Task: structure prediction
Amino acid sequence: MDFYVNLIIAAISSGTPLLFAVLGGILSERSGVIFLGAEGTMLIGAVVSCLTFVQTDSLALSIGAAVAAAGAAGLLHAFLCVTLKANQIVCGLALTLFGTGLSAYLGKPVAGQALAVSVPKLQLSWLEPVPFLGPILSNLDILVWFSFLLVVVLYVYMNKTSWGLHLRAVGDNPATSDAMGLSVAKLRYGHVMAGSMLMGLAGAYLIMVYSPNWMEGMTSGRGWIAIALVILAGWNPLYALGGAYLFGGLDALGFRMQLMDIGVPSYFLKMLPYLVTILVLILVGWRGRNKPSIEPKALGAPYVREQRF
Amino acid sequence: MSRNTMADTMQGEPPAAGRARTGMRLPYTMQYDPGKKGAWWMPLASVAAALLLCALFLGASGMNPLEVYAKMARGAFGSSFGISETLVKAIPLLLCGLGVAAAYRISVWNIGAEGQLVVGAIAATAVTIYWPNLPGALYIPVMVAAGIAAGAVWGLFTAYPRTRFGVNELITSLMLNYVALLLLDYLVFGPWRDPAGFNFPGTPLFTPEQQLMTFGGTRLHYGLLFALIAAAIFSVFYSKTRWGYEMKLLGANPLAAKYAGISVNRHILLVMLVSGGLAGLAGMSEVSGVSHRLMYGISPGYGYTAIIVAWLAKLNPWGMLVTSVFVGGLIVGGYSVQTIGLPSSMSLMLQGAILLCLIGGEMLGKYKLVRRS
Result:
């Protein structure tokens, strides 16, 4: 029992940064902009929050700084892709390369330094006697609760509010949205930046909770897994929850199997999340082979007013 | 593509959102023209802008940017040793750059050159480990074939799911990078580790027949010829063959190509085989020409850096001859700033900034200043 409780807690802790990043990716892609800079943006968020914490010892400031820095990265992406109409894929790749380099450069002085940080847990003493669920829920930190809240808020926002309708309209058909008087540029800027801020939060969570010391490239592909999970979740915040915890669980399980020494070299266990990502995408592709695609229809296409095809 | 029919049929009044912005009106406005070609000096201007951008970060952390850049330039091009090191780095960059450029030309986003390079290196090393008694003259050709084949197969792992199930090749190729790197770690820390190597994570040194020859007394090896030949073939292929023509058409207008009966899927498979094969060859030339053994951290990210090489040259093979040397110099320069306490990831930061400025500048070049009517 204890094993499973601990495993689930570990899965949630490992899945939460993924969840934030996936939700960020969904926001951006729903508006029609592919944000492949997730990996770089998470790294910038992580290193900025680490540096801020070393300077100020303040959790709130560290998270705020990470979110702000990631927002700046999002602004850059939006400027290049929305205003200048650059190729969104190349732009995202460039942002990831730049973020990886910049974070390694900025993080050099604090590399390997363990942070004495603890994110407070929500006090739920009345829940503790509940078997199984009690120990899990009372062990979750406030950022995890925030991520739950965010899933619900984003789901309602996208499906039940007029702003959400505008968002989806811009992602599916920017020309019509433009004709209806919506500002394609404003909506895209806003959602790309909100999305990148969530990716910064993902980076901050990684360093504040998951592994509190900075290492070059510490996201090790989580940003890219998050982009894959956006597809897996079908651009739906509710499904993002399942995808993120599936991968968080895989990560936690691999780590535990390594401790148990089951005879498989740890290198192969570490391959699991990457291989499963590919397999799951193949499965999604195979299942959806005869169905119309659910991805936002204008995804990846810069909008030029009165452009003729 | 009738995505924008609304905008097409709209006439007369501009949309309300466009009209709302009043205030100061300049006599000139920027007009977007997607067909406009960027100026030839744009890549140079982008590099300059990127140097300026990074100078801000350097200055903010208390360094003198001019001193840092001078140090980098001297390290990369200031001595004959520096120049030969820069050329050594340019070889895998050019090979991988040609590979990714071939794919990008038809909008296949291969970012898996890193993994394809690593499996190429592994396969070439496997030849030396499992066939220790080949006739000496056979080693290099067999290792080249093994490297190319392994890289091509790794590329196929990306291309097949894309063509068969529509799986995004960006993600697959990148995930496979991590898999390849973990496989490398497993081999050099595990079964392939040199028993006489004092726990060094690497295989035994190659014998002289298994090593690529070098030019004179330098570290510059014959892999340079592979890279030059590949660039020449690339260029001839695109301008002279039917396949090259089909690829060109596919890159320019995929829809028209499809109607003309060109199989998109077949070309995706083909281009990924070539792309992976070239990266695999780069991996072979690294182990056989530079490190002379398979070891931990065989590539400092050549596969990712190749993206810059390709893009900076606008996917042109002859341009890549220049950009691969330039970016190779950035890597070597990155090593040389370590002596003044900077991390070698400096060069990665510069590379990212160059790419960002380049695409920004290229798109800015598509706008023209017109007089308001």
User: Anything to note?
Assistant: Strands of chain B lie at 28-32, 367-371. The CA atoms of residues 20 and 45 of chain B lie 35 Å apart.
